[in-house]
Amino acid sequence: MIVQQIEQVRREHGVGQIKALCRSVGLAPASYYRLRGQLDEPEGEADVELRSAIQRIAMDWPSYGYRRITAELGRQGIIANHKLVLRLMRQDNLLCLRKRRFALTSGAGQKPTAYPNLSAKCALTGLNQLWVADLTYIRLRREFIYLGVVLDAFSRRVIGWALGRRLEAELAVSALRKALTIRCRSTSSDEPLLHHSDRGVQYASLEYTALLDEHGIGISMRARATPSARPATPTDNAKAESFMKTLKYEEVLLNDYSSMEEARSSIGHFL
């Protein structure tokens, strides 16, 4: 079957060859994707690499829809059909859900969506002075899952973490709740606790910020890049991002997780 022959060549040469291969045999790319979906074959390496690229872009640009991600893939030299990108993003729960805006008659309940970066002013001398948080994706054999962590910046120890299949606020909230349970701040401490993160919608959500407010925890976020100010840099959340790099190189990339349960057990042991 011609689609199977294209699949074999695609696995050897990558997703960027799809349009050229279809053109050479006189097959429309749309027909190729429709017929390929009927093969019921295991996901090829090219699909896994495409999903990985989509995940990286979605993590860097959480507000991007499938059209913008398809365009960004093209800028990175990865040619993929926008319908395939849409399907993969839907399977991996990466589509942005835009809620309708309603006019409010009062200012009650309104919260800012971002906060200033206060972490640079912290001179750490002990525990529970600064917590840092971050999110990343974990690649399984057949899917991607997400990891949210909360670290104590002084000890650099993970005090809360959660795994999930959706990159939503609930994932970050679950990690924060575990941190609050495991290491509750002493009420007699004169040193206020500050929570620092990037400007992701998960950390700016009402549920997350309300939980921080409930426990009297200050909120700090990575600086926004603007023409009138210095650009945002990775050092704005260096401790959390350094941990994620260590986790990837010393645990995730050394294993081939077949399921979320296996990943949870292995990552939990590493932490």
Describe the structure.
Helix content is 42%, strand content 13%. The chain is built from 11 helices and 5 strands. It has helices spanning 2-13, 18-24, 29-36, 45-60, 66-75, 82-91, 169-182, 201-204, 206-214, 238-250, 260-270; strands spanning 130-139, 144-152, 157-164, 194-197, 218-221. By secondary structure, the protein is α/β, with parallel strands linked by helices. The N and C termini lie far apart (48 Å).
List the helices and strands and how they pair.
Elements: H1 2-13, H2 18-24, H3 29-36, H4 45-60, H5 66-75, H6 82-91, E1 130-139, E2 144-152, E3 157-164, H7 169-182, E4 194-197, H8 201-204, H9 206-214, E5 218-221, H10 238-250, H11 260-270
Parallel strand pairs: 1-4, 4-5
Antiparallel strand pairs: 1-2, 2-3
Helix pairs in contact: 4-5, 5-6
Key traits:
271 residues, alpha/beta, 42% helix, 13% strand
What is the structure about, briefly put?
With 271 residues, this protein is α/β, with parallel strands linked by helices.
Outline type: elongated
Assembly level: single chain
Radius of gyration: 22 Å
The number of strands is 5
Low-confidence stretches: 97-110, 226-235
The string of secondary-structure elements, in order, is HHHHHHEEEHEHHEHH
Q: What's the story with the biggest beta sheet?
A: 5 strands, mixed
Helix content: 40-55%
Number of helices: 11
Q: Termini separation (Å)?
A: 48 Å
